[in-house]
Structure formats: C-alpha cells, structure tokens
Known about the structure:
Blueprint lengths: L4 H9 L3 H17 L5 H8 L8 H26 L8 H12 L3 H26 L3 H6 L3 H18 L5 H15 L2 E2 L6 E2 L13 H20 L9 H17 L1 H15 L6 H15 L12 H24 L5 H12 L8 H4 L1 H29 L7 H20 L2 H20 L4 H23 L4 H4 L1 H42 L1
Antiparallel strand pairs: 1-2
Amino acid sequence: MFAHLAPAIGAFFAWPAPLFLVIGVLAGMLFGVLPGLGGPQVLALLTPLTYRMNHTSAIVMLIGAMSAIPLSGSLTAILLNLPGHAPSVASSFDGYPLTRQGRGGYAVGASAMSAILAAVIGAVLLTIILPLGERVVLAFSFPEFFMMALAGLSMVAVISRGGSIWKGMVAVALGLMISFIGSDPVTGTTRFTFGNLYLYNGIDIVPALIGLFAISQALEMMLEGGQLSADRDSELRLTGVWAGMKSVFQNFGVFVRGNLIGTFMGMIPGVGGSITTIVAYGQAAQLSKHPEQYGQGEIGGVIAPEAANNSKDASGFIPTLLFGIPSHVEMAVLLGTLTVLGIDPGPRLVQTHPDRVLMVIYALVAGNILTAAVVLGLGGYISRLALVPKQLLAPIVFALSMVGAYALNGEVGDVVVALVFGVLGFVMDRFGFPKINIVIPMMIGGLMETSFNQTLLAMGWRGFVTRPISLGLLCVVIAVLYFSFRTKRGHSQQRVSSTGGVKSEQTKAD
Length: 510
C-alpha cells in the first residue's frame, strides 16, 4: 500500500481535483454552520453532481465536504451556543462560556488547531492500521457496544460533579425516558407515543439538541438583553485566535487523549460522533487537576472534544471501506455514493484499489486543513459576533433554529420537538438542572437497550463478563464511577471542614 503513496499524491494534485476540493469544503462549511443541516444533507445534495465526474474529483469533493462539517459546526457552537453539528454540542460546554468572557477567538483558535492536528495524525494512523483494521472491527459485538454506551453514561458522574447530584439524577432519568419513546427493539410494541404516528420512531436527537441549546439560549437572550460578551477589547479578540492555537500544544496531553478516544470509538459502527465527543470531554474533566473549572470556560473542554470529533472520521473509514459497514450516518451516505461510482467497499478494496483508499485519506486531511485555514483567517472577525446585542441576535438564532429543525426531514413534528425542548432547556437553565445530563442518555439510551437485549438473547448475561474487551470496559466504568464519587466526597468533606474552621475561628474571636 505504501508503494502507491506517490501516484496517489500526484493524482490528488492534478487539476481539477483541487478546485473540487474547494467546492466541497465551502459547501460543507455552509451546511455545517446551519443547525440541522450537516454531513448527510450536503453529501446527498452533492451526490447527483458526481455521476458524470471522474472518480478522483468526485471523491475529493465529497470527502472535502464531509471534512468541513465538524469544525464549521463547532464554530457556531462556540460563538453562539448553536451547534451546527450534533457532535459539536460538547464543544459548546466550555467554548460558549469562553465567548461570554470575551475570548471567543481563543476558543476558535484551539478548535481549528485541534482539527488540523487530529486530521494529520488520523491520516497517519489510518494509513498504518487500515490493512489491520479487520481484526479490530471483528473484535466488537453486542456486549462491547453496551459497555461503550454504559461508559458514556458513566461520564455523567464526572461532568455534573459541580452541581446537585439529585438534579443530575433527575435529568438522567428524564433523558432515559425520552430515549425509550418509540418502538421496543425486541417486541416491536410502541411506548410513550400516545397514539401519535410521529413518535413511533422516537425523538430525533437533532431537533431536540437544537431546542435544548439554541432555542433555549434565544429565549434567555431575549430576556437578558445586553451583549454576549462583556469584553469590548478588539485587540484581545483579534489576537486570541493565535493564543488558542498555542493552547493546544500547551495542553497536548488533553489533545492526545481526545484524539485516541476519537480514533478508537470512530472504528466502532453505531457508536456515533456525539457519544465520542462527550466521552472525550468527560475524560478530560476526570483527569484534570481542576475539574470544577470545566463548564466555566476551560480550554481543555474545547480541545478534547474537538480532537475526538475530527479524528473519528479517519478511523470511521476502517469499517466503511473494509466491510461496507458505515460507522455513522455520513459514512452511510458516502458508502452509497461510492457504490454508484463503481467503488465496492470490502476486504479486497485495499488490495485491488489502494490508490482510491489513499485518495480518501488525502482528501480528508486537505479538507480539514483548508477548513481550518478559512476559520483562522476569519476567526478574529467572526469573534465580533459576541458584540452583537442579544435582543438583535436572539430572533436570528431562533429563526435559524426553526429552519434547521424543519430542513432536517421536512417534518413539522421536528419543529414542534425543537420548540418543546427549547422550553425544557430554558426551564432547566433557570432551575439549575444540567442539560448535559439529559443529552447523554438521549443519545445512547437506544444503543444501550438494543445491545443489552441482543447480548442476553445471543449469549446470556455471561456475555458481559466472559469477553475480554467487554470486561475491560466494565472495569473502566467502575473505576470512573469510584474515583468520581471519591473525589466528590473529598471535596464535600473539604468544604465542611473549611466551614467548621471558619466557625471555630469566629467563636474564638467572640
């Protein structure tokens, strides 16, 4: 495969492939910044254009569009708390607080640099492990999927450490209940639908996320007034982009761990990018020396999910190209397009057409770098969005949210879902309920239930503990919960002792 590197590079730079790369990236960025319009939509719209194109130009354009989605979706998540791409939700947890502090450019710079490094490292790893990827993919089955989902749910204990544990548990229970709406995966009976046909397939996560994070924020901005950022120092905003780029190297351990999580979880079909970024965010908070700063504007909370978000696509090509099993929705659309172009994914693809596999890798790297270059070139100016008055920005955010929710499937029900979850998110913010605690169960509840039932039917309960990878993931979950609650108890005891010390000093003074 390495012998085909030079010919593939030559074909990649041959005209008009670079032109189609730019077209794909610009189309991907346009769809990435609009909530509800992401990778599947832009790939579906570009697919008819590829029928009369040569294979190289078609692959470059499609991969370029797909590679632009994560970073452009994170851009609006950081600056406006409006994730254009579902996996970008995790980047808003600390990215948007940084924008509120007048450091939006700082967060954007960290996001862009994480995307560049993750793309390059992901391409190198993909080139090395793609010939060996068959063994990795076949090692995962139902018990491993369940344990991966359980690991994502365990991150709730880490992320919500600073708030009330009871409010966090209520949010988790509500999220799980919402994830169970629809058809039972075993019996096929409907649950919690109340006779409404729209609910038979469950709640679509994208309009729900639009409501929780975008519409609720628009309602909050309408009531608050003022500006997103209290810092009017234009020089800080313009130079903050480059400081954010440097922060990735200053927090390189956080980046490496997020990149490894994205690479590992991206190879597992069905896990999804949203779970990947949340797990990366959770481990960054768990291993931080100051976990209480996460959610308040900690740059590690941007670097970790961005590294995972931009590395998952590279490793996601392993099951897609080797077995024809798409790792996520974008890969499913891409898989169909490649088949139409006469490229049949399968175990023999690497041996028969290694040049096309390498073309995918190069296009992914080049697309990420080009997207990051556009974001970095405009980052200082884009961060000025934080100075827009909230009462002017709120109607725009609300309108974009409504358009994005409807454009997803052309369903009025999606708009209703977005509105309902917008009100729910607004109420949760007002009463101190952590929204992340409801997001994680909604995203992984279906995967947990399905994988759990499949394991019991195929292997029995022993399937969870007799398979090495499943048992190892279970140990990880137990360790995460143990250290999280032990740390929480230590912080509580420290607060109690410090309060007691203050009282004793006051008694002595009296």
